[in-house]
Amino acid sequence: MTMSHERPSDDDRLRRLLDRADISDVQLRYATGTDTRDWELFRSCFTDEVEIDFSEGFGQPVVRLTADEWVAGTAPRMESFTATQHMITNQVITFDDNDHATCIAYVRASHHSPNPTGDSDQTVYGYYTNRFERTRDGWRIAAVKLTAVWMTGNFGIFQTALTQAGVPTPAG
After folding, report:
1. Out of the domains of life, which is the source (predicted)?
2. Which of 23, 28, 76, 93 has its CA 20 to 30 A from that of 103?
3. What percent of the chain shows pLDDT beyond 70?
4. Are the CB atoms for 53 and 62 separated by under 8 Å?
């Protein structure tokens, strides 16, 4: 235990800096994998089971599923858009212990899908609160929580794009 007057060793400080860099890299792989449709890269971000919480702003229930199920459900949804761009910034990482951390990060997720109903773009502004675990393969996301603070554009492109892709929507 480190007393308040004791300073962590240089090795401990270096380990924590490397952990922060690794966690940040996972967050960026999450965005890059989504936008490039590289589902293997996207899958590499998660523990084998993952909790998904998109309840704020989207009204979807919190679910726990395998990472493979999460990827299999995410891929057709994202591929139904002509393009997406997820920007993740202002990452604040806190550690519960040596093997568990939380990263809160701003997100701006833009979705583009030309359609006959109006605006072709929709953007979600908010933040992720992702819980991380250290695994034998490095840091991975064990829980994803998206909090949508506000949205702009045509929210209907989500349903239009999903319907065109043959993906069932929550309402249908």
Report:
1. Bacteria
2. 76
3. 90
4. yes
Task: Tell me how far apart the alpha carbons of residues 88 and 108 are, in angstroms, rounded to a whole number.
Answer: 7
Please give the model's pTM, rounded to 2 decimal places: 0.87
In angstroms, rounded to a whole number, what is the distance separating the alpha carbons of residues 40 and 33?
8
Sole residue written with tokens 């492109």: 157
pLDDT tens per residue across span 88-112:
999 999 999 999 999 999 999 999 9
- Angle CA(76)–CA(40)–CA(146) in degrees, nearest 5? 60
Short-list 171, 172, 169, CA closest to 77:
169
What span, in angstroms and rounded, lies between the C-alpha atoms of 149 and 57?
Answer: 8
- Dump pLDDT digits (tens) for 31-85: 999 999 999 999 999 999 999 999 987 778 999 999 999 999 999 989 999 999 9
Nearest to 77 by CA among 37, 130, 26: 37
Kindly write down the DSSP assignment for every residue of 38-90, as one continuous string.
Answer: -HHHHHTTEEEEEEEEEHHHH-PPPEEEEHHHHHHHHHHHHHTSSEEEEEEEE
C-alpha span between 129 and 29 (Å, rounded): 16
* Domain 10-164: top CATH class: alpha beta
Which three-class secondary structure state does DSSP give residue 26?
Answer: helix
> Which pLDDT belongs to residue 170?
42
